[in-house]
């Protein structure tokens, strides 16, 4: 039987949150006015700021990404990422991985674009003010995108070569804007146990479910992974 195992990436005694590990990557690089911050307070980090969508005509994004450019993590021994979240505003966020970073453009010093692996999530309204809730992100659920558009025919995510982590707030084509706030207690790589009766660590009693964003978007399902009382092993 394969036992559950985990590796803390951020938010543990041996891997505490540090403001030097993260930097803002907002739409200001494209002339926008959105702005994000990562506020470290003890053992938690609060991703917050303001999402402006008027300047760029309905588009907009604000994000925090890791700063290390010479670090490569081998997470192939795990099944995905587990976010341990604190209080949230209930808005829709995006978690992003990169498995490739290219040298900066020698002509202008800018970073060259590579494929991003993205996963959208939102904390259910009845759990948004909870002290702790969880989002499990299986590797297979991360979608490849390039310059903001889904990339068809992309190679498989190389979990032996994880180079960067990001957390993003975006407009989703004008669907959300304004102030935002999401508290993150920890980010870790986790594996599923082979025996479902042993559960899935802290998230054993939480499962994916879906709800409608609103009646006008009845077919636009938003994944919610914070439904207490359900069994994640049947996800």
Automatic annotation (TrEMBL):
Stored SUPFAM superfamilies: Galactose-binding domain-like
GO MF, one example: unfolded protein binding
Pfam families assigned: CIA30
GO BP terms, alphabetized: NADH dehydrogenase complex assembly
NADH:ubiquinone oxidoreductase intermediate-associated protein domain residues: 18-184
InterPro entries named in the record: Galactose-bd-like_sf, NADH-UbQ_OxRdtase-assoc_prot30, NDUFAF1
Family to which this protein belongs: Belongs to the CIA30 family.
PANTHER family: COMPLEX I INTERMEDIATE-ASSOCIATED PROTEIN 30 (PTHR13194), NAD(P)-BINDING ROSSMANN-FOLD SUPERFAMILY PROTEIN (PTHR13194:SF19)
Official protein name in the record: NADH:ubiquinone oxidoreductase intermediate-associated protein 30 domain-containing protein
Upper lineage: Eukaryota, Fungi, Dikarya, Ascomycota, Pezizomycotina
């Amino acid at each position: 039987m394969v036992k559950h195992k985990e590796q803390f990436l951020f938010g543990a005694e041996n891997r505490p949150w540090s403001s030097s590990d993260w930097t803002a990557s907002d739409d200001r690089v494209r002339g926008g006015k959105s702005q994000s911050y990562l506020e470290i307070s003890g053992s938690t980090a609060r991703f917050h700021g303001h999402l402006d969508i008027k300047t760029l005509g309905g588009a907009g994004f604000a994000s925090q990404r890791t700063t290390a450019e010479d670090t490569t993590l081998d997470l192939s021994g795990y099944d995905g990422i587990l976010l341990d979240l604190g209080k949230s505003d209930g808005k829709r966020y995006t978690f992003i991985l990169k498995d490739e970073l290219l040298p900066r453009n020698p002509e202008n010093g800018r970073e060259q674009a590579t494929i991003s692996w993205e996963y959208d999530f939102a904390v259910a309204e009845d759990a948004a003010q909870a002290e702790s809730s969880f989002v499990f992100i299986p590797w297979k659920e991360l979608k490849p995108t390039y310059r903001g558009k889904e990339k068809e025919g992309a190679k498989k995510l190389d979990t032996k070569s994880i180079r960067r982590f990001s957390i993003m707030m975006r407009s989703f084509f004008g669907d959300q804007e304004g102030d935002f706030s999401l508290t993150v207690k920890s980010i870790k790589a986790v594996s599923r146990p082979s025996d479902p009766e042993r559960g899935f660590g802290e998230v054993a009693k939480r499962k994916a479910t879906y709800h409608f964003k609103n009646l006008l978007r009845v077919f636009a399902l938003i994944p919610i992974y914070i439904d207490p009382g359900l069994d994640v092993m049947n996800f």
